[in-house]
Amino acid sequence: MVVESESHETKVDKLLERITELERNVGKKQLEIEFLDKVIEICSDELGYDVKKKCTTTRLNGIG
Question: How confident is the model at residue 51 (pLDDT cuts 50, 70, 90)?
Answer without folding.
Answer: confident
